[in-house]
Amino acid sequence: MSRRRGVMSDRLKYELAQELGFYHKVKDGDWGNITTREAGSLVRAAIRRAEQVLAEQGTLPEQRG
Fold first, then answer.
1. Average pLDDT in the 17-38 region?
2. How far, in Å, CA of 37 to CA of 20, rounded?
3. How far is residue 10's CA from residue 60's CA, in Å, rounded to a whole number?
4. What is the rounded distance in angstroms from the CA atom of residue 49 to the CA atom of residue 16?
5. What ranges do the domains of the chain cover?
6. Spatial separation of the C-alpha atoms in residues 54 and 47, rounded to whole Å
7. How far is Cα 26 from Cα 46, in angstroms, rounded to an integer?
8. CA 13 to the chain's CA centroid
9. At what angle do helices 36-57 and 10-20 cross, to 10 degrees?
10. Are 5 and 27 contacting, i.e. CB atoms less than 8 angstroms apart?
11. Is the pTM above the cut of 0.85?
């Protein structure tokens, strides 16, 4: 089975890691040094960023309650 291609660019991942305060753990390219909590924070930050971009473009679908 082929490996799934990444959804986030490396640039975005490193930028978010820096904003979240754990860039020092991943600057050498080893993402195995981050905690589960840090990984979750990275994903949440990426989702927020994507939603913000979509909202600015006016393409964010309406949320359902």
1. 96
2. 11
3. 24
4. 10
5. 10-57
6. 10
7. 17
8. 5
9. 110
10. no
11. no
